[in-house]
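S.,

Sequence below, as promised.
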Amino acid sequence: MSISDVCEIIAVRHGETVANKTGVLQGQFNTALNEVGLMQADAIAARLKNRYFDIAYSSDLDRAMITGQKIVAYHPGLELLPSPELREWNLGKLQGREYKDLIVEYPEVMQAFKKGGSPDVPEGESVAEFHLRITTFLDRIAAENTGKRVLLVSHGGAMQRILVHAMGQIADKNIRPLCDNASLSVFKCKAGQWQLVTWNDVAHLEDIGTHNTLTF
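The prediction came back faster than expected:
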């Protein structure tokens, strides 16, 4: 498989936010990186400083854009393109609220999140709509960038959609694959066929620490 046949996707989840740390469901609620998140973003940027990119895209939400801007700062001439298609799952009325309250008010929805099901999100996107938004963008970018390396900066839920697109649906009895803040994952696409290369690589965060949440 020559590089001319393949689009390589380097996918990064944004750094940690206050909401990640305090148990607030973010969705498309716009939040910034906290102090640890900024250090994590610096670390992934340094990890990728010698990696060449042909083009770079980021969710237009602040936590992703700030992470992406730190990465492209090492790459003169590389523009970070804000892309609403890479936003996190639109969680409607649940966004910006604490998990502990949502578990009481929407127990079935929150349980479905944990099991990787298809919750009926009030005033938000369905799983199918979310998946289609992410994968349509992903397939288009891969088709447009054959033989190139693409940087994508996005969110935990969006990263799961990319993983499912590349690997297939996770069996019901298994735990949903999660990825840490500022983690690195790599995918390749050849003629519409996707391959997972690396998932949730956090070696660059060894001295900072990682954090994960069950949802978004």
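The chain is about 35% helix and 20% strand.

Coffee later?
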